[in-house]
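SEQUENCE-TO-STRUCTURE ENTRY
===========================

Subject: a protein chain together with a token-level encoding of how that chain folds.

Sequence line: the amino acid chain in single-letter code, read from start to end.

Question of interest: how does this chain fold, as expressed in backbone structure tokens?
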Amino acid sequence: MSEIEFRGKDVAEAITKGLTQLGCNKEDVEIKIVSEGTTGLFGLMGAKPAVVLMSFDNSKCNDKTFFESDSKKIHKK
């Protein structure tokens, strides 16, 4: 199993990016929400992205567009 971090403006976007990039269905991954993100002051200053960790089995995903070198954080379990 591999665990990869994905970011987005909100949790839904981070999950969608991860599923798309990995070529997985939602039921084939385990999702941990690390941070729900913040919009910052008036949506301008101090905004922080939402962060999710996705654990998946390589045999269940069609990772055509994903390469391990593309991700900052990959953890082998």
Observations:
- The longest helix spans residues 11-22.
- The beta strands are 2-8, 29-35, 50-56, 74-76.
